[in-house]
């Protein structure tokens, strides 16, 4: 465990540096794309520029959250600042929803009255956008598998890659057919893609903030594995939740036969190793209780417990 925690801050610093580089590149390109979109009179390019600008915001907020997560825990924040990334992911995905709704409105107006599109500019800038977006996405890709904050930013950027590919294809078709209504049609597809990505992040962010059990953990299998550890007679008051996407926490009471403290420590150690290696749960609080001393309740009703305390 100490080996993991030693390398985690360094990995975070590497991701932060790459994210800062991506932010600068994306910001410069947003300016270029806005100018090109206005000259070409292309909603697809202006839409992509707006999406890219949300990437700038996403990259900036994600960078800040990663820096914040490096701060140590203290008496006021005993879990540290790891949830900052989840708040940023939720904010980023919510702004994506608002952007998508704006895209749909602008596309509707252009379906009613399609303007003339400068297809050559749309194609050239679109190809440049694909290269820029793909490059910045690859810069932040490492670490996105286990960090929802970084993944929300990575999805922002990969969404841009796909949307600009669509804009380029639309420009090519418009160049040879004059079908200007394809420009807002591509914008609608971009909006749908944005909404889909946003929904995935919103759902996972809310689950973490609500301290839901991680989706890939089978609680019945987890209970069976804990009870299979030598010396464990039962489990109750079991809670599993996430601090962020990569930091999982568990607390439970383990029922054992009456024994020496040293024997209980051996059981706790065995359960902790199993949880870490099989379920990726890096922090487990395990309380030992004599099997005949208490009536177990698998999932403790903290509402009822709090009600009893207040009365």
Could you provide a short overview of the structure?
This protein has 311 residues and is mainly α. Helices cover 68% and strands 10% of the residues.
What features would you describe in this structure?
The protein has a 3-stranded mixed beta sheet, covered by helices on one side. Strand 2, helix 8 and strand 3 form a beta-alpha-beta unit. The chain contains 9 helices and 3 strands. The protein has helices spanning 2-40, 43-69, 84-112, 119-141, 148-177, 182-209, 219-227, 261-279, 302-310; strands spanning 232-242, 248-256, 281-290. It folds into 2 domains: 2-209, Alpha-lytic protease prodomain-like, CATH 1.20.1510; 219-310, Alpha-Beta Plaits (2-Layer Sandwich), CATH 3.30.70.1350. Residues 1-7 have low confidence and may be disordered. The longest helix is centred in the N-terminal third of the chain and has 39 residues, at 2-40. With 311 residues, it is mainly alpha-helical. Helix 2 (43-69) runs antiparallel to helix 3 and helix 2 (43-69) packs parallel to helix 6.
Task: Jot down its keywords.
disordered N terminus, mainly alpha, Alpha-lytic protease prodomain-like, 311 residues, Alpha-Beta Plaits, 3-stranded mixed beta sheet
């Amino acid at each position: 465990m100490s080996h993991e925690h030693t390398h985690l801050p360094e990995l975070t610093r590497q991701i932060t540096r790459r994210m800062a580089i991506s932010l600068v590149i994306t910001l410069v390109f947003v300016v270029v794309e806005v100018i090109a979109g206005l000259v070409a009179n292309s909603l697809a390019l202006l839409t992509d520029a707006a999406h890219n600008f949300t990437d700038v915001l996403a990259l900036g907020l994600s960078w800040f959250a990663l820096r914040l997560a490096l701060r140590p825990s203290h008496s006021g924040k005993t879990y540290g600042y790891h949830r900052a990334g989840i708040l940023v992911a939720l904010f980023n995905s919510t702004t994506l929803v608002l952007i998508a709704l704006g895209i749909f409105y602008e596309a509707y107006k252009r379906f009613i009255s399609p303007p003339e599109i400068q297809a050559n500019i749309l194609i050239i800038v679109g190809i440049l956008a694909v290269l820029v977006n793909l490059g910045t996405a690859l810069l932040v890709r490492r670490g996105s598998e286990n960090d929802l904050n970084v993944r929300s930013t990575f999805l922002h950027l990969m969404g841009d890659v796909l949307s600009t590919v669509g804009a380029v294809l639309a420009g090519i078709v418009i160049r040879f057919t004059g079908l200007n209504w394809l420009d807002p049609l591509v914008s609608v597809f971009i909006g749908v893609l944005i909404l889909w990505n946003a929904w995935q992040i919103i759902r996972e962010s809310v689950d973490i903030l609500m301290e839901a059990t991680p989706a890939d953990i089978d609680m019945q299998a987890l209970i069976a594995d804990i009870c299979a550890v030598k010396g464990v007679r039962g489990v109750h008051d079991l809670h599993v939740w996430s601090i962020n996407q990569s930091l999982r926490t568990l607390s439970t009471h383990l029922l054992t036969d009456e024994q020496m403290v040293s024997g209980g420590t051996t059981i706790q150690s065995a359960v902790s190793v199993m949880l870490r290696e099989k379920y990726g749960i890096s922090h487990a609080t395990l309380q030992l209780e004599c099997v005949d001393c208490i009536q177990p309740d698998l999932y403790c009703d903290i509402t009822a417990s709090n009600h009893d305390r207040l009365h």
